[in-house]
Structures are given as structure tokens and as C-alpha cells.
DNA sequence: TCAGGTGATTTACATTATGGCAACAGTTAT
DNA sequence: ATAACTGTTGCCATAATGTAAATCACCTGA
């Protein structure tokens, strides 16, 4: 769910992290570039850069600041806490094979889904070389809707408050009441479907994945272009495969 | 080399990052645990935690703070800047195969070597399940010494000042003068060897890897236990394999 | 069910640290 | 030499930290 932070927040840390993010997103920035992107003084930016350099989160080459390789290692380490192993890959790949469509497993965090492993994900780029999205909304993805249907209404509301219901495709549900109606219907099943709500021509079916304590860890989903698989087949044939895969995954998560 | 930061450093950011690191290293911490590890007030720690939560660097479950999966994704993204791809794996695996020993490629950063890819690295653990080290000193590793030999003397000195010359095995060079003598010898060759300087019974040969601009990116090394490969064979047979591998890698780094 | 812990956050306010601004020192390209 | 850009320094207004004490959220035994 959304972490409902009520206490004090530290602007210094926020500013440092924003600078770090900008450098990461732009694959390296100079002081001048940062100065034009960040609303704070040059000297202040320098202080942040000095701090991040000294902490080895950044590296500087020829006046350009880059995120360090050490950050990559820290991230790798952070990943150890999450289901990753061969299990996830095996289950997702098997689901993709069984349905002959793309499958993926996402982690549920802060009211969004973060891509953990996709059957065709290779170096985060698809066949066209465009970068895969790594963050998804819940309201317009199959696994996301299935997760929302399991949450308490106030939790859903806080997620809507935080992330909104942005339209990303023709069929995206952008109205809270409509969403709650949809969730009520889903609640009786163990899965949810999307019909061109995420991207045009794309349909998918998804379900939540729980850990040993029953907490929602993430979501598993599978789907493809409408000319390859229609809605009937999606629910008739894919639902079982999906739920089997969920079970395999959950039993592996102790 | 070491980033020689002279300007102002921000304690707020440093404190936030220290808390983040502690949580990462301990795989989750409570406020009480952090309070006992960090020299700052509980209320202040809360402010840091609030900030890191809101920035989605942390996640909280049942009073325990964990590093978020999003951090893992950020790290993955940071890694894209570095040679990773199949090229590194191919070259390292080929070097390991040709010598029948363990090979690895490390990134040179902030005066240390960070593990990028090792031929037998699997999930960061070795056969015994113990976690692999991901950071290495330069003075007691083969690739590290080869890199030091290419640097200017003042750069080497600043690295020694920063990291020292900690003894990690019987043969570790812990005296600066001895190290400089060793580096002078290495300078005439394109590689360096370690003889039980890193770990008992372990010998290895390593060399620097440069990018298209001639900057040192990291190091490639290969070696194994002394009962499998002696020093003579290391320099006679492995040196060529190593230098070939370095060349392959460098030509792939444009 | 209720009083009494226990630990997690938040508050209030004095003490320090940081942010913005502007001047200046160093480097590099023109 | 000039211009352009990077990074540092000094000075106040603003923000963060330390301390102690007040809330809050749970849990537990009577």
C-alpha cells in the first residue's frame, strides 16, 4: 500500500535523491545541466554532489557526474530479498510457453507494480530496442486489478489518491466508481482481465501472488495482442494455466 | 581514482544514506535496532525513515524497514552504463574455460575493484553458500596491482592514503615502499600476479581493461589454488590467454 | 474489558547545519 | 586575453538535529 508518511520529511535528503535520480535518468549530467534542471543554487548542488561523490554513489569523469557501479551492486543486493531465483524465471517462462504469449511477474510496492521478470525481457529492451517500462499502475493492468480487488476499500482509495487513474489506453478505467464496480466483480474470482485498458490491442489475465504469511508480494500475468488471443480463450484456457503458475510460485515462496 | 572532495558535505544526506546502507546490510531493521546502531536521536532517525519511505527507497512491513525493490531496479538501470552484456560473460567464461580456473572481470571505481562478473559467480554465493565479496582492494589482487602500476605515483598515494594497505593474507604487501617496488617491476609488463597476497593458497594473474579513450575501466583476472596451478604455469600459459581476453574485451568497449 | 507495559512516532524548542546569493579562484576553449 | 564553466567561500535566513516529554498503537495479564 501507500506508506502514509505523516512525520517530518528532510528536504536535504530529498534534494540529494532527486539529483541522484536525474543523473541516473540522463545517464550522466554536468553541473550546468543540473543547475538548469534543479530549482536550487549552484553552490547547493555542489554540496549535494560532493556528498554523493564521497559516499561513492556518484563518479565523476571529465566534469560529468555518473551514477557509480557501486549503486548497481547495492541494487543487486537489495534484490536478494525478493523472489528472483530460478523459480520465478521457471514459472514465468513455463506460463509463457504454455500459453504461447508473454508472461511476467511484478512486485507490488508503494501502490504500483514493478517489473521483476518477464518472459521476453532481455536487458530491459524489447525487439525494437525501446526500453521496457519497469513501473505499472494497478488500475489498468490485469494483475493490478486483481490485487486491488483483494485490498480493503480504504487502501484502494489511498492508492487512487496517490497515483490517480491516468488514462493509458482507450479502455482504461478512469472513474473511481467504475473501478470499484469492476473490483466487486473481480472479487468473486481469483483473477482479473484487462481488455485494451493498458495498451491498444492488448488483452491479459493476471492474479496476485502471496507469500507464506498471505501478504501480497506481487502479481503474475499473461496476455498478448487481440488478434492472437481473444477474450473467451483468455478466460477459458489461460485462467487455469495462470492459477497453476501462481500456486507454483506461492509454494516456492515458503 | 579517489574523488578528492574539498567542498561542503551534507550531514543530512550522509545520515540518510548511512541508514539506508545499514538497512540493506542487515536485510531489514526496526527503529529500535537503528537507534542502537546510529549515533543520532530516535526522532531524527524517524525523519530519515519518513523521507526514505516517501521517496520509495524503503518499504515498511510490521515495523521493520526494508530496502525497496525499486532500489533494485534503480541499480539495474545504473548497470546499463557499464560493460555487462553478453560480451563480458563470454570473454570471462572463455578465459575460465581456456585455463580451467576461475576468471572474473571487475570495475575500477573510487580506488577499488568492484565485482562485475565472475565465471563461477552464481547469485553472489559460492558452492558453500557464503556470500562473495563484491569489493576488493587493489594492492593485494592481480588486476589491482596491474592497475596501480599504470597510475601516476600521486594517484597511487592517494589510494593508499584512503584505503590503506590492509593485510588480508600471509603474502599481502603492507608496506608502501615495497608496493612501489613491486609496481615498478610490473610496469614493464602488461599484467601482474599475486602469490597468496589475497587469500592463502591462491595465486592469480590480472591485467587492466581500458575503454576506447584509454581510461582504465576495470580489470580482468584468472587464477586458482596453488595445488592446481603453479606460478610458472601462471605466467607462461595464462598470461597470453589473459591478454587475449583483455583485447577482446577492449575491442568490444568501442 | 481494562489498566499497565512496550515500542514507535511525533512535538516543542534551543542548538547546529543547510540553502541562497554573490564574489572569487581555477581551468579550458576561443 | 576573454569568455565560459566548475567549484569554493562568507554571510544571513531557513531548515535539521538533540533532547525530553507527549502520543499512539498494540499486546498482555488481571
TrEMBL record, chains A, B:
Per the record, the GO terms for biological process are: negative regulation of DNA-templated transcription
Q: Which intervals hold domain IclR-ED?
A: 70-254
Among Gene3D superfamilies, the record links this protein to: 3.30.450.40, Winged helix-like DNA-binding domain superfamily/Winged helix DNA-binding domain
Alphabetized, the UniProt keywords read: Transcription, Transcription regulation
Q: In the record, what terms sit under GO molecular function?
A: DNA binding; DNA-binding transcription factor activity
Q: Show the InterPro entries listed in the entry.
A: GAF-like_dom_sf, HTH_MetabolicPath_Reg, Tscrpt_reg_IclR_C, WH-like_DNA-bd_sf, WH_DNA-bd_sf
Tell me the Pfam families matching this sequence. IclR_C
Give TM regions.
none
* PANTHER family in alphabetical order: HELIX-TURN-HELIX TRANSCRIPTIONAL REGULATOR, ICLR FAMILY, HTH-TYPE TRANSCRIPTIONAL REGULATOR RV1719
What name goes with this protein?
Answer: ArcR family transcription regulator
Q: Which organism is this entry from?
A: Haloferax gibbonsii (strain ATCC 33959 / DSM 4427 / JCM 8863 / NBRC 102184 / NCIMB 2188 / Ma 2.38)
